[in-house]
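Q: Can someone sanity-check these two? First one:
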Amino acid sequence: MARYTQRTSYELKQQKERINTSVRKGTKRRLQLWLVFMCVFIGWGGYTYVSQMFKMQDLEKEMSVKSEEFNQTQLQHDELQAEIDKLNTTEYILQIARSRGMRLPDELFIRTEE
């Protein structure tokens, strides 16, 4: 009977080892699958980050060009607004009219010769 129990325990050990090796193989397979998934996910994330970084640089360059154009346009607008404000004054209108040779009805021109 002792022999039978030893043989049975030996068979049980072999059966446990077979189960353990299949469990280890399954665990190893799941681990490899998880690592592949993580590598693909990290690769996709890195690619997305780099492509967005280059796109941001391009957009920043475009923004600086547009900002410079805006500043120039704003300066031109300010100059024209100042001209409009001057044209709303009678003194400036009289100055422009006199430079073009016009005069008021009761005004006399005095010219000096040099």
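And here is the second, same format, sequence then tokens:
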Amino acid sequence: MNAVHEVLVSPRQAPTGPARRARPPAWPWLWALLALAALLWPGTTAWAAPAGRIAVIDLAGRQVLAPKSPTRIVCLGPGCLRLIVYLQAQDKLAGIEGLEKRFPRGRPYYLAHPELGRLPVITPGGVAGINQKPDMEKVLKVRPQVIFATYLERRVADEIQSVLGVPVVVLAYGELGSFEPAKVAASLRLAGRILDRRQRAEQVLAFLESNLADLRQRASGAGPSPSVFVGGLGFKGAQGLGSTNAGYLPFTWLGLDNVAASLGRRGRAMMAKERLLALDPEVIFIDGGGLALVAADHAARPGFYRALSAFKCGRVHLLHPYNWYATNLGIALADAYAIGKVTHPAGFSDVEPALKTDEIYSFLVGQPVHRHMVEQYGELGGRPTFLGEKKP
């Protein structure tokens, strides 16, 4: 059985009602299913490839003939470039999307490689470009040997490939704003095979698995944990405190009692202020992407915030946004360690979030760029600046 079953277990809804604080079951059958899916997912072939080519099945189920170890590639769609950087294949890039240059901050893979900003722009990118044809002339101008793309339907991929005469290989994270573990694993392995980075792909998956196992072990043996809530999560732009997620990944990994699960839905949700007051979570985390809106609301409605126990007791902490042009797995892991430090201080007593975060970034993207994230969003796991200094 392949170890990929440990990689990034999908969010699941926490129990509600009186049993809400119980930890979720391990669901070994789900892990086994994910492992089997990763093994059988696209990447293997049933037909012979001509010399110098690799025959693959991409994440859209398309049969593609790609050149062996290409030296000139481009990436289209949310998160595609990030996977290539994780594979240490950024030196093969011949151009990038305009969005990457327009918003250079907030994404460790780009912060770690400012040289990417010197590459020519091949298409605007961004949410508006999802499942759309790129600027064909600009793509062709940089002479790519392979085009990697995410969130692209097979019909569009086939059309781009036919018009440009360049193999298009579709990768996947899953639904936009989340991800499916088996698809992420399969995408890394598929791209790794084409780019001659198979060993690196396995190293990345093993690294993710090892950190998730460490998080679970630290949390499981550290005693009871407080109820938690995360607000300010971005969705098509910055959002206020009520923007949350019932399946927030770091909470799921740590087995925490996420009060948003009481909303009865999976994924992103909006929580009314009255409901948040009624649930009154013991610890509140604020996503850095929505920090300015929460600060403004705090100034406008101080009474509401004073009524929340977490604000009264100084148990409000800052997190860095990990959904920025698809899921930044490194940031999600860093957030989880910072959260664990707050919710399970005994289990995470030897963890220094800043050092751990740079360890994660150094492995995944090649540089310890945590300080750049702090400059933009604030101290990971720290007290939001709009609350002022904590009183002794």
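A (reply): Looked at the second one. The longest strand covers residues 53-57. The chain is about 40% helix and 15% strand.
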